[in-house]
Amino acid sequence: xxxxxxxxxxxTPAERAALLRYEAAxxxxxVELVRPGxxxxxxxxxxxxxxxxxxxxxxxQRAWPSIQVAGTSxxxxxxxxxxxxxxxxxxxxxxxxxxxLQAFTEKIVVDGVLADPDAFARAVDAVRPxxxxxxxxxxxxxxxxxxxxxxxxxxxxxxxxxxAAVIExxxxxxxxLVQGLDKALTVIxxxxxxxxxxxxxxxxxxxxxxxxxxxxxxxxxxxxxxGWPVLxxxxxxxxxxxxxxxxxxxxLPRLGPLSLPPSPVPWQxxxxxxxxxxxxxxxxxxxxxxxxHxxxxxxSRPCPGRFEVVQRRDPRVVLDGAHNLxxxxxxxxxxxxxxxxxxxxxxxxxxxxxxxxxxxxxxARSLVCTAPVLHGKDTAPPGDLARLARALGLDARAxxxxxxxxxxxxxxxxxxxxSVVVTGSLYLVGQARERWVPWEQxxxxxxxxxxxx
Length: 453
Fold this sequence. Notes:
Protein-Tyrosine Phosphatase, Chain A, eight-stranded mixed β-sheet, six-stranded mixed β-sheet, globular, UDP-N-acetylmuramoyl-L-alanine:D-glutamate ligase, alpha/beta
């Protein structure tokens, strides 16, 4: 991050006005539309509500062919690489990922550029009548703010005039809010235990939910790992050609042999293999993708907040949104070369914190337990996390405010010559990132890395 970042006090009147319009739109979706309490459990009704919402907007999600990406781990990174490859091939490509770290417009990307804040505000204004008609329906089994977020994304993409879009699934796939796409390809990344209250306790149950993104005649690229037999059976039932991916050096059927780029983290090679296979499958369907476009995809910048080194020394600070057990286990492996970090940790979504702490604990010199500031989402109380961590034999303390927790960890790491790792929640990572990257600059410069270059 080389270029100096303008602080909020140095913004021009036009920039301040754009931020006010952006923030009003973001607050409408993220705060005003959030309904407290649990929704009625009706998976089929949830799908019907999503399709009806899209229909009320004119089905903008069908204005281009889509690649839908599902999975437990790696789907955001895989989606980002696929989109980079399509853009390299000259296709005007949209990318939707969720959740965002700092700015809502991180969910709405066209050829690597975040949505213009005014375009985002216009799209939110367009979805308001439909969202307002539903927000008072306490019996609705779907998240109105989730529907509005996707609707605004689709409208921004339609305005941008896309050739294709890569859409990350939210939770599961079969009954997710992402519905009604004109699918050209589906992708399923690594599967593991997460969102078990919704997707089931076993990997077979989870695989069945993820396999719901498959469509008749539409190829599906998937990791040959846990849940593979379920994916294969569902592909045969639906009539979706299934392409299995075995991570390692790839010999792509259409684009030839490919060497995966080196990475400091073990999971990146798996994600790269899936993305490369997906682009190869699209080439097989006549898309204008060549080997150099795949190479560009794999060399593209990783997602922010995924083993992102935001400070290299005094102390080294790494942000990694590992929010479930498979991701935390992978993070622990990545930290094996630099053991004894001071870890800032939080968890959300009603997950059982014990296995998460057991997974990351061996990499920690000490834990600073905290909670991100969220609206309408559950977070584990920092004091409870610290007590549980101490019961597991870890050195842990609680600091309620997330930025104060970060400062506490940085001070300890500086004294002891250690690194700091912020993890356990993407929301926590996004809030910690404010120390280095102001969200206002992410919005205005339309990139997660406004100080680069």
